[in-house]
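debug: dumping io for the single-chain case to check the tokenizer round-trip. Nothing else runs in this session.
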Amino acid sequence: MRPLSGSFRELTRRRDFHAGGLMVLIGIGVALKGWSSYRIGTLMQMGPGFLPTSLGVILAILGILIAAAAITRAETAGDTERILPEQPQWRGWLCILAGPALFIVCGRYFGMAPATFACVFVSALGDRSATWKSSLILAAVVTVFGTGLFAYVLHVPMPVLTWKGGW
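debug: decoded output
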């Protein structure tokens, strides 16, 4: 095998190139799923597959633009970026990933309001500058606003409060 050239090795270390490639893959996947699984319809009578397909195509185009910008960017000394930071923020990553998981679990067993509160509270704790008090206030405000919007204005079919015991 031939060793990688210096410019290609530098290119593959750029975050923008990898982010654009990931966006292209996700966009294509969403567009194909929307196209193959749902009826697309027309612009005047959109079907259930129209929105996911069009958003997938837009995401793929944006990913191509981002990756192209990384390719065409001029090389400068010290221009290489690490894909992962030298000191990863494990607490932040864990909190932000745990938030949606808590929403799923709490939403299933306790309802929309507790799920929203748990998701926002835990995700907010991922910020280094966040305190317990600021996270609590943020979670309370978002819970009141989100529950009002989704349950009472948009009528999302999810109970606001419920109890499904029996873990």
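debug: round-trip ok. The radius of gyration is 21 Å.
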